[in-house]
Amino acid sequence: MTALKKIDPVEKILLEHNQITPQAIEEIRKNNLQNGKFLGRALVEHGYLHVQALLETLSKELGYPFFTKEQYPRDQLPVQGLQFPEGYLKEKNIFPLAVDDDTLTLAVFDPFDWSTFEDLKISTGKEIKLTLSAPEDIQEAVENYYGLGGSAMDRMVGDISEDDTDLDQDWENTEHIRDMASEAPVIKLVNHIINQAIETEASDIHLEPFMEELALRYRIDGMLYDYEAPPKRLQSAISTRIKIMAKLDISERRLPQDGKIRVKTQGKDIDIRVSTLPTIYGESVVMRILDRSNIVVDLEQLGFPKKELDLFQQLIKKPYGMILVTGPTGSGKTTTLYAGLSKINTPDKKIVTIEDPVEYQLKGVNQIHVKPQIGLTFANGLRSIVRQDPDVLMIGEIRDPETADIAIQAALTGHLVFSTVHTNDAAGAITRLQDMGVESFLISSALLGVLAQRLVRVICTECKEPYELDEETKIELGIKKDRSVSAYRGTGCKNCNSTGYKGRMGIYELLIIDDSVRKLILTKSGAQTIRDAGRKLGMNVLREDGLRKVIRGLTTVEEIMRVTQADQV
Predict the structure, then answer these.
(1) For 300-317, what is the mean pLDDT?
(2) Alpha-carbon distances of 229 from 71, 153, 187, 213, 251, rounded to whole Å
(3) Which of 31, 330, 413, 436 lies at a 20 to 30 A Cα distance from 164?
(4) Per-residue b/e over 126-162, b at no fewer than 16 CB within 10 Å?
(5) At residue 4, does pLDDT exceed 70?
(6) What is the pTM of this model?
(7) Cβ–Cβ < 8 Å for 271, 245
(8) Is 42 in contact with 34 (CB distance < 8 Å)?
(9) Taking Cα atoms as reference points, which of 61, 46, 47, 65 lies closest to residue 14?
(10) What totals of helices (H) and strands (E) does the chain contain, helices first?
């Protein structure tokens, strides 16, 4: 009689919930990666599954609550009167959360460790109640309450032997570095760096090598913040692990490389664009996090004032012409264009974009990624696109006279063209096109409007407090001295990582090209003259829109001054 194969309960649950593939289970077993450990741990350690996805699935199936580290008690040891050795708690990956007359509540990673729970039931004389929690959170709680403290980074680094990781002295031994980068502790460390960035809603991860240290910085709401970094000795192993994930050449350390990682974490699909750059102290790695579920493609949610929103929506519904969005790198121009395209993306329109790179996929839109190395430039791509019978074109950026000329011609021949340029204000976009050699009469005929924008950080709603603007600030903002103006600021709290800000929104300046502005373009008037004409038509400049948002309590004076310091009111 053939013995029935015993199915691991974790395997059964994860397969039923489509959290893992049979192939992944087979790889774990074939390569002997489980080694008697809890299957969930093996899957997490080797990058097959994010710990949150694992625990949320088990919680849903088993009915046990799922605790994050923010939910742990903060003030004192939660369980009084019962003694638990620190080493035992660490070894079993459990933490006592609460106790009453007849029940002991434990935070556990492995809910199937019945022998441990039975031992505790006998030794304490209490029923055991389980709560699921990530192993890093359990270990951190044990350290905080029973040990000498220490961060998740410290514990992961502690798992890697110093003798094995002096890799910067072993540049030529590629196989040695590959082996180290493929070991569980390094995989966990890189996963921790990425997951921490996603949890803090960072847009970029910067790993920068210096003479005596490796720096880790996250860009959050447009600003860079230092975070606890791994030791310098792990520099090569970490960069190699990232290059393996991005399918880059790990033996090439003298030239820049670009790649892409796709991960599913916390129930979201995340694309990570990886860039490596050789420096004198090793490779600098920057990872741009593209959270497809987090992109705002709704114009109403971007922060447009009502008047500017109505005018912009009128512009994007025109049958042909050119609409430009201008601002420095990182000012949200592409997001605004995507939101505009989404608004007019209907089955009766063919929309084609050419971008460098394509950051987010838009359903129903044909998107092209330029590849200058094989001759697919903005200009060459545009020539082909106009033969595809499009109704709407989006050009990632007008960088050169050739692209500008083709874009203008497309706008004049029945296409609605969206694009971006880099100028400080809306009026400057016109003189920029003229500087590129585009004839003024073509600009005046094709251009419908120019939107200038910046991104400002939004005050955290959890720690927001009012205060009165001082006289000096009022003068700088053009506010009358005798006018009493209240503003707001964030004091810093857990919700905003003590920054006082949470999220970003846009401030806008929309120049509509009417007959009076067209005459100024034809006579090649300067940007300031065109700007003044726009003001007479009712255009609010960036700082004015920013000031309105300050008075409404959405952002701070400091933010407005920071992002508009190159502009004149």
Answers:
(1) 93
(2) 25, 8, 15, 9, 24
(3) 31
(4) bebbbbbbbbbbbbbbbbbbbeeeeebbebbbeebee
(5) no
(6) 0.73
(7) no
(8) yes
(9) 61
(10) 22, 19
Kindly state the average pLDDT of the residues 266-285.
88
Token readout for 300 is: 């109403």
Distance CA 366, CA 362 (A): 8
First to last CA, the chain: 88
488's enclosing H/E stretch is: strand 486-490
Residue 301 tokens, joined = 């949610």
Q: Count how many Cα atoms sit within 13 Å of the Cα of residue 190 in the half-sphere of its side chain.
A: 28
Evaluate if residue 425 carries a pLDDT over 70. yes
Q: What is the pLDDT of residues 50-107, one digit of tens each?
A: 888 899 999 999 999 998 877 877 655 667 667 777 778 888 889 888 888 888 899 9
- Asked if residue 28 lies in contact with residue 15, where contact means CB atoms within 8 angstroms, the answer is no
Could you tell me if 231 and 151 are in contact, meaning their C-beta atoms sit under 8 angstroms apart? no
Strands 127-133 and 103-108: parallel
Identify the residue whose tokens are 């806008």. Answer: 508
Whether the bond between 401 and the residue before it is cis, its omega within 30 degrees of 0, is: no
- CA atoms of 534 and 404, how far apart (whole Å): 23
Task: Identify the pLDDT of residue 74.
Answer: 64
At residue 1, the pLDDT reads: 38
The b-or-e profile of 435-445 (16+ CB within 10 A means b, else e) is ebebebebbbb
Q: Nearest CA to 141 among 129, 128, 130, 155?
A: 155
Q: What is the pLDDT of residues 181-203, one digit of tens each?
A: 667 788 888 988 998 898 888 99
Burial class (CB in 10 A: 0-12, 13-18, 19+), 476: middle
> For 318-375, how does the pLDDT look when each residue is reduced to its tens digit (9 = 90+)?
999 999 999 998 899 999 999 999 999 999 999 999 998 888 888 889 999 988 888 8
